[in-house]
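Dear colleagues,

I hope this message finds you well. In preparation for our joint manuscript, I am sending the Pyridoxal phosphate homeostasis protein (Peptoniphilus lacrimalis 315-B) sequence together with its predicted structure, so that both groups work from identical material. I would be grateful if you could confirm receipt.
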Amino acid sequence: MSVKDNLKFVMEEIEKAKRHSLTNEDVNLIAVTKNHETDVIKEAIDLGITDIGENRVQELKSKIDELGPIVNYHMIGNLQTNKVKYIYNRVNMIQSLDTLKLAKEIDKRAGSDGIEVNCLIQINIGNEEQKSGIAYEDTLKFIYNLMDFKHISIRGLMAIAPNTDDKQYLRRLFRKMFEMKEKIIKENISSVRMDYLSMGMSSDYQIAIEEGSNMVRIGTKIFGKRIY
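The corresponding structure tokens are as follows:
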């Protein structure tokens, strides 16, 4: 199938899932462009894609250089502190904030420019050793520890679910994420906004939306398998 057909299918599935969601909110689609050429990405942009996500700083920087400001950019992968300088002021959002060390570096860089950097807090919802993200139970403590960083704007939460076919297990994890978002809202923490719950990828985005996600990160279902 073509990118056009794939995108049409994905948008239809998103609309179906919305009808059964906890919130019936609009869903922001982040097209994950890892290892895909800019010509294909431009095709998706021409078809209505407004946001793209990248896992690696080098590739994200390259895409920004090639495509320019025609789309919003999201850093969705593990971000090392020594690479913050390359993208902090060029992205719409960093979705993978998960350590105070990283927050300190983002804040320092943003402060030198007098800007705020939009960030999502990444939670390791499946407690997987190989994945980044803070522990679910540490979320509130982590947020309060971020209060000293005046150049970071917390806009919500992000999670990458385990790779499993157990749909009920995934549903429980996504529901926990939604419950944490609602808990944070009730805390009424100054300067913290829970605008986005970023969860759901090509294999599980429908379940994620049904359980309250309003931002999904989809690559394979749009662009096909990656070219390595």
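For the figure legend, we might mention the following. The chain has one domain: 3-78+93-218. DSSP finds nine helices and eight strands in the chain.

With kind regards,
E.M.
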